[in-house]
Structures are given as C-alpha cells and as structure tokens.
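User: Mind token order:
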Amino acid sequence: MAKAIMIQGTMSNVGKSLLAGAFCRIFAQDGYKVAPFKSQNMALNSFITKEGLEMGRAQVMQAQAAGIEPSVLMNPILLKPTSDVGSQVIVNGKVLGNMKAREYYTHKKELIPHIMSAYRRLEEKYDIIVLEGAGSPAEINLKSQDIVNMGMAKLAKSPVILAGDIDRGGVFAQLAGTMMLLEPQEQELVKGLIVNKFRGEREILAPGLTMMEEISKRPVLGVVPYMHLDIDDEDSLSQRLDQNMAGGKIDIAVIRFPRISNFTDFNFLSSIKGVSVRYVSCVSQLKNPDILFLPGTKNTMGDLQWLRECGLEAQIKKFASRGGVIFGICGGYQMLGEEIKDPVNAEHGGSMAGIGLLPAVTVFEQEKATTQTKGYFSKVDGALSGLSGVFIEGYEIHMGKTMLQAEQGLVHFTETNGQEVSQMEGCQRGNVYGSYLHGIFDGEQAVQKLLEGLCKVKGISIGDIKPISQQEYRENQYDLLAQGVRENVEMDKIYEILERGI
C-alpha cells in the first residue's frame, strides 16, 4: 500500500497546494509513482476529467506536477460556493445538490465512505500519496466534524507537515498557536514544520526558528522562499485577481465577478510577453481594453445583478457600441444573451433580462453539463475572423442550455467525452462572441489568431508577441517549483517521515 504524507497549513492561502504540488513533482522526479489527494476542496476553479467528472483545479495541478492524468479520485468532494452561506456539493464528480453550511456540516461525516473508497483505490495504484488539508486544523468549532485535516490524517494514517506563511507576518504565532490548539493525539501526527513564502536572509530568521523548535518540540524542516511562479491557483485568493493595471502591447480586461469561476481560462494569455491581463471590478478600472472577457461565474443571475448595480453593464454596452471586442465564457456567455430563465430554481428562480448583445436565451436545468470537448471554430465574423477553422479543446461546466435566435454558432464540436459528435455551440454578433468552452484560449494557435486579430483592429504590428508552448512552459514552472522546495527543505528528513509513518 502507498505511503502517505500530508501538508496542512496554519490558515488558508499559506501555500499548501503549491507545497503539495512540489512534493508530487519531487517524488516523481525521484522515480516514485505519486498521486495527490484532498478529501474536500472548496473552490470555484474546477476541471472536467476525461470521464466527464468535476474536480478541484488544485488537484489537477498537482497531478500534472506528478506526471499523471487527473482523476476525480484525487478530490472526491468539491464545494462550489453559491452564496456566503451555501455551496453546490459535488461528490465523486457529480452534483449531489445545493446545501446551506449548517446542513452540510451535519451531514458531511456521511461522506467518509466515499472519501475512503477513493483514497483506497489510489493507495493500491501508487507508491506515495501526498495529501493536502484545507484552511486550518485548529478551527476548534469545526473539529468534531473534520474530514479534511486531522480527521483525514487519522483515516489515512498519515504523518503531517504543518506549514505557515511568513509573508503575511506572525508565522511563529501561527505555528505555535496551531500546535497548542491541537489535541495531544493530533499533535503526535505533526512530524515537522515548514516556514513558507520567506523573503530575506535566513540567518536573521535563525533565532526564531530555534525558539519555534523549542516551543513546538518539532523540527523546522525548511524555509521556502517566496517564489514568483506561474502555476494554477486554487481559488479566488489568487493574487492574479489583484492585477488591474494595463502594461502590455495588448490590453486584456476580465470582469471580476464576485463569484468568478475558472479564471484559469486566462492564465495562458497572461504568460505571454507583451500581453497584460487585468481584472476589473468597477467602472473606473474598465477604460478601453483591446478585448473584454466576461468569465465564468457560479451565480450567473446574482453576478449579472451586481454588474447592473455597479454600473459596469452600461459601460459594457457602450464599449460594444464603439465596436469593442467582447468575449463571454460560460456564465459570461449566458449574461450576454437576451434573457436568462430559471424555472427549476437552480439559482434565483424566475427570469431576468440579459445584457442583450447576443441573440440567445438561456434556460437553467437541473442536470449539469460536464464534458471534455474538442472541435474547431466555425466561420467567425468581425475582429476575430482569423479564428475560423482553428482547432480548440477544453471542457464545459454549466447548468443551463442556451438557445440561439440565429442559425450561426461560433464553434463546431467534433468530440465530447471521447465520443464523436457534430454539434454547433456558442454565438456571435459583430465583435461580440460567446461560448461555454473553458480553455478555449489554452491552445497556441487559437491564442496566436486571437492576438493577430486584436493587433489588426488596433492598427499595430504583432511583432514579437507570440505564445510559447503551453506544455513546455507549464513543465518548466513545475520544475522550478520542485527545485525551490528541494533546495530549501530537508528532503532526507521528509523521506524518513514517509518511511516511519505515524
């Protein structure tokens, strides 16, 4: 059976996901078959597997770092917040339903058999499982129902490495306080500490590390520097969303909805030299981009209402009237249509007018579409006509169906979940476009044609603006992540902890 090691953190956003990804990469580089695992993930960035099942994006990143195909076994429970007090609950890649926090809290231990079934199947196939916790294991009001931190460590019989974030300050209080609030048997599971996101000279930190070891009775296994890497982030805590300054030859603006989802759709674009991707949450930030994206959202109707109340809808319409290029993806595509209807109360119930820039009507249904899809752009009009015929692939995650008021779609799907199809999807009118396909601009050719079209509209030469190989770029980022951790963590002691277990 596989050996296990678990990364837990003193709070959210201490870097657990990236540390787990680094260990996945390191173990794989050292010749082991390794897989990630997170029993319960809460995030609006998700992914569809080749089987058409939905899982958290962080475990996809970790699987890629390990060099393996992402599987829903790596994230059996995914919570996608729909409001401040409720989430859509996804179990084994399929929607179980929407639940308020209190309702889920009282039922989540019933999901342990699903969690352990997934974990055991991974355990039979791999040499090492790298588990990731969530938030903090010291949330004393939640510990009795814990299935993702110490509760999961006990079930998996996994030793724990506790990480703290020094970049935010107070790392010693984080680590010492967390250890103090753990039960004695939980403290026994913690085999070492990691200080993450360090900027400065380690010699100055040394006295504090010594005191921390004396207080916690645990070794500090490493001080990992703050690394400037371009790797998919887990959720909306991502610093990418704070980027709102234009600085590139091509200026791309993305509406930052309150419940924005799958903003990883724009990560590849942001990696290109000469292209700036910025996130807009108020009228003053919009300005005059070369293209405006309306991204996915977990609450289309709620975020459309927000768009109206903050004045951005009116500005989007003005931008379109001037010939501005607009592209909606998933929920953003739904908003751009004439109307959104919700007869099944998937979100708010009733109906509301869309922005009205595309000849389409969306009707929500109970069944959720989750597919991996391949195809090509059909005949594209307007500023992005160069995309015509270009191959695309990605995935769909949405609750509604969108019906066109015109014949011409935007893309032609040829394969969904491995099955041959012939299906038109998406919509266009002038310089306004929409599609359900996440990852539609993850391909090098599609991005190249997109940028060429935007440069032509702007009247400039594309020059040296050129997408690199996404696969090569991503693999390089994972190698840099692994190198940064390998050089600053005592990996020999990590292997000793793996061997000893608990």
In short: The radius of gyration is 23 Å. The longest strand covers residues 360-377. The mean pLDDT is 94. Residues 470 and 480 are 15 Å apart (CA to CA).
